[in-house]
Please model this.
Amino acid sequence: MKVFKTVLIACLSLVALWAAGLVAFTINVMTMSPQHEEETTDAIVVLTGGNERVEEGLKLFATGRASHLFISGVHEDVKKRELTARWTGNTAMPPCCITLGYEATTTEQNAEEARKWIEEKDYQSIRLVTGNYHMPRAYTELAHALPGIDIYANPMKQPDLDYLSSRFAKLVFVEYHKWMYRKATLLITPQEPLQQPES
Model:
């Protein structure tokens, strides 16, 4: 009986810890905002997969928040002109320095694709653009893949995603568990220093 009680208490404690973590994760997602909005970075990195992410990256790029824009996870059939055509703001789009990454289909691959691109540059800071519900996992992946690089999170609430909808609840529920899994996995995965070009 004593053993059963001990096991029951342990299980209930784990459930309570899991539930508290989910609540904290949800609140963090709903309240997070862009870091250091007025700061410029060497590059802006956009992870595709949600409405308005590319538009947000184009806006930041057009308003001078970085000298280069990298969009990761672009479908192979999409051309650069199709993406830049989405910009309808008053500020003119810079004439160069937008790079599209076509290799990534997952967040982990986004990080690998961004790392490969960063290694070809001499950049020390990036602004990361993705959906707010996706930002914790995306930031975790890129921070591990890009040791020594300053990463400013630029989370955005997708206009088609209602916080009171079941879709949002499902997304956050799934992301919470994916984030915990990747966080635990990366804790025991050694970081590899970036091999940046010699200046």
